[in-house]
Amino acid sequence: MKVITIIALMQYATLSFANSNLKYRTDFGKCPAKTVGDLAIELINHFDKTGSLYDLKKYIEKNGLEKKFFLSKYALEYEPVSKKLYLNFDCPLPLAKVQVFKKNGKELYNAILVEGGEIIDPNYEVFLRKEGKVHKELPFFSISFEQVKDEVIKDISSYLISSSSEISSRLS
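Given the sequence above, the corresponding structure tokens read:
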């Protein structure tokens, strides 16, 4: 009976000790520090409660945090001996301002074309400019909603990445 009690106390002590004094290191990559800093705090708080990287990754997926915080990729690591959580984030480079239109131009919305051919919220550029991470003017173009779903947008993205900044700045 004493052995069971000692084992139970050791497990309790280990669990409560594992989550206290959590240290963390973040790398924001090309992401806007304000938005991804908020994400880092949210993830650290969640990890501090659960102590599980698996739960943390499921939390990110369940809440759509990759899209919400403009992440192109992320990596999470935990070293239990040093009790250090590593959060590495990266975001895509903005390539162009895009105006997407539907139904013969009657419905329009603005977006940002980024690496990989994704169209994302225009606020992404605002966040990056505010932090001085985008210095040049982005080229502007208009595209139909149907073409956004095609390979056309990926081809445009590839062209903008491969072209010189002088050429891409003249595009419109």
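Residues 1-19 have pLDDT under 50 and may be disordered. Try to locate this feature in the token string yourself.
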